[in-house]
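Q: Joint fold for the lines below.
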Amino acid sequence: MTSLVEVKNVYFHYPRARISSGSSGWTLQDVSLTINLQSTVGIVGESGSGKSTLVRVMCGLLRHQQGVVKFNGKEISEFEGDGANDLRRQNQIVFQNPRRSLDPRMTIRRSLSEPIRALQDRIPDDEELVASIERVGLGREVLTRFPHQLSGGQLQRIGIARSLSVNPTILYADEPVSALDVSIQAQVLNLLMDLREQLGLTLVMVSHDLGVVSRMCEEIIVMREGQVVESGRTESVLSNPSSDYTAALLKAARAASLERVTGD
Amino acid sequence: MLQLRNLCVTIDGHEIINIDRLDLGPGDRLGLVGESGSGKTMTAKAIAGLLPNEAKVSGSVTFDGRDLLTLNDRELAKVRGKRIGFVFQDPSRSLNPMMRIGKQVSESIRIHTKLKGDAVTTKVIDLLRQVQLPNPETLIRRYPHQLSGGQQQRVMIAAAIAADPELLIADEPTTALDVTVQEEILRLLISLSEQRKMGLLFVSHDLGVIRFVCNQVAVIYGGNIVESGRMEEIIDRPMHRYTAALLAANPGMPKDNNFSTFIGKRLQTIAGSVPAVGKFPSGCRFRNRCQHATESCSTTPPVETSGADHRYLCWNPGGEGEK
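A: Joint structure:
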């Protein structure tokens, strides 16, 4: 297994957070983990545990204050110029709320072109855009539409198409389905699984839904209060949690979920 | 206690809701489940008399022997918030950010009860304690932003039960919350309903959550109740194809911690999406998304099949062994 992202003893705080000699103030505290090439990793934990912050630090949207974050063996703060653009191209992210992550005044064509213009400095033709939109199960007619004319599920497909348009190595999905209905969730999750297999992507998914994570991710990272509580193979962590917190999370998830004999 | 009969809501000539029958007895916990756009929130709003002005309503919503649709605003004000309480999805949007917690909860006490002065404060503290909030004496001085999402939702529930309602309508009350907090809030709703013999109408798109909270369920699609009955009966033996599809699309959790059966497994999906209002097909409204549609589904709306604990409208129902 080749390691793609290496996080070592990373500390992060937001501007103006008060850092005391104790533990308070840090949003991420001494976080270490490795993401292997073509692996599927789920990050779970409660609101405020630092899941989303960790994802943003790993893909270079936020700069950590201490520790090391390496992408392909190189510290991400050392990527400059064209290298920084390529880092962004290889690290793509799908956000929770597609309605908020697409500019309401841009047509879908324009929104889809943005990453290619910004990161590859060229204007894609319609053929390329149609191909990227068909890959996520939508048709060419959506290119001329505006976000308000599309449903939440369609918009999330566009969010996925947009992030895949620059051929990333790793896709970060931050709660990609929690704003969607159960029925639409299933469509988007299946799409992510299919695309990941077809394209050989590395997938890091933030989710509060353990049922979803246990379908999508072979590995799991449990976070609490800015620290990694537990990590490992999803199956072994969830069937035999070593921390009380993971056990509590499982109990809560189990209470309000349907029980299934098999995954089908 | 609550009876909906031939409730029909139209906006701009489009039929939004058409419910022939829906009943909720005292202390019952009824889950209303469906996708976005299926009419579940509109149904809750119709019961509450909170529909937009342009909506035309016919039929009846009988609560404790009186038809709520015939009441004027003043009469309705005595029912709404007093005998029927409401909790909505996003507590941070339902609370006034400029008002202290104590004052927000006391509003419904002042409006709906005869309590005055210190008695109001005592009641507020008592209510905050009932929804299991820590240190209610200091909490009443706080503003909403100083509370977590789960605490805010508890405050909303405290305000909703302040006037001892007989019915609580909760519209996706835990969708914005973490799983652990969700479980706590759901348990709180169940225990309040049991202690107070309070009916609960629980609206959600997630059958997992509904199964945990409710003993009755009604599945809504295209503004029609397509299947309803006792919770376990419907989870175990869904007859309507839409109910079965909703169950199959739910990610769920593996039985007996058997996570190895889950990895990489695709979910069953429901083709397409809920059509826009006015764009439903003829016959059965679900037929263009249904894998089991037959000739008769496209020509005639399905008629009701009803048993003791179970009613459904489907021409080609599923059932045992076909899950």
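Q: Anything notable?
A: The radius of gyration of chain B is 21 Å. The CA atoms of residues 109 and 115 of chain B lie 7 Å apart.
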